[in-house]
Design a protein that fits this description.
single chain; about 290 residues; alpha/beta; about 40% helix; globular
């Protein structure tokens, strides 16, 4: 079984995506589940978690509509304005009534203030999230933000944090950059309330598709040593993976990186961790879902 815990869809007629533009030609368009569904079936991906792509309620509503139309979608990580606790409180009460909402994410890496997540208001919002037992997906553009996650995880020990993309390890960069990422990742991994997604492992130097298997192997080896397989989950990061050689190449790279894992260890990465952390119901077979998504 494989659960892809990090997949995106978006509809520009329904929500605003300020980060999209001509500098991202592969994804500067509407993204539907139907586009990737045949490849998911062919590669044996049984279920997916849709993850927010914009800090607005319209993006979450679009994902929920996609989820309603496809049994392949096991959950949705939506958006709530955690930095505005008065607005977040009633919104959380509403979204948690929908069992398809399994987590919350904000595009914190797009904020002009790098310390935005350290503000008191955001901390209050996280406390509200803890009351509802929803994980928070922590996304970063680079490993520097790991120090902020370390602080938040320490301040909110009862809140589960899901680190997206292993904080973007500097694949292809110099040894000093890799050592800094590894040290920061290990500090965060020491927090028992942090889990991580093995996803978005693309080249940090040059074109994103210039990554090599050796670099992915090394990043995954660090991650499993730091977190253990029971705190890692797989994410295909589609459609951003189109910029890194395509969904299949990215999935194959991760499969290769864990080729020596035991079956039990691999099960944690491929589905058990995602099912446990997000509280997912296990999917029906991919064969039954492929006809629906088509």
């Amino acid at each position: 079984m494989i659960i892809d815990a990090h997949l995106h869809v978006w509809d520009r007629s329904r929500a605003q995506y300020d980060w999209l533009g001509p500098d991202l030609p592969e994804v500067d368009r509407d993204i539907t589940l139907g586009e990737i569904a045949p490849e998911l079936s062919r590669l044996g991906v049984d279920g997916v978690v849709l993850v927010q792509s914009a800090d607005n309620a319209e993006d979450t509503a679009n994902m929920l509509d996609v989820a309603a139309a496809s049994p392949r979608v096991l959950g949705v990580v939506g958006w709530v304005p955690l930095e505005q606790p008065d607005a977040a409180r009633p919104m959380l009460a509403t979204v948690t009534a929908d069992r398809r909402i399994v987590g919350v994410r904000n595009l914190i890496h797009d904020r002009p203030d790098p310390d935005w997540v350290l503000r008191r208001e955001f901390g209050v919002g996280l406390s509200l999230l803890t009351e509802h037992a929803l994980p928070f997906d922590f996304v970063t553009a680079n490993p520097v933000a790991l120090s902020r996650l370390d602080h938040l995880a320490g301040e909110h020990p009862d809140q589960v944090f899901v680190l997206d993309h292993l904080a973007k390890p500097p694949l292809g960069a110099d040894e000093a950059a890799h050592r800094q990422w590894e040290q920061s990742l290990r500090r965060v991994a020491a927090r028992p309330n942090v889990v991580a997604k093995v996803s978005g492992l693309y080249a940090a130097v040059g074109p994103e598709d210039s990554w090599i298997q050796e670099d992915v192997d090394r990043a995954v080896a660090v991650a499993v040593d730091a977190f253990g397989p029971e705190r890692l989950m797989y994410g295909g990061d589609w459609p951003m993976s189109l910029r890194a050689g395509g969904y299949e190449r990215v999935l194959t790279g991760i499969r290769t990186a864990v080729r020596d894992w035991s079956a039990e260890q691999a099960e944690h990465l491929w589905w058990r961790t995602a099912a446990r952390v997000y509280g997912l119901e296990l999917p029906a077979s991919a064969d039954r879902m492929s006809a629906v998504d088509a």
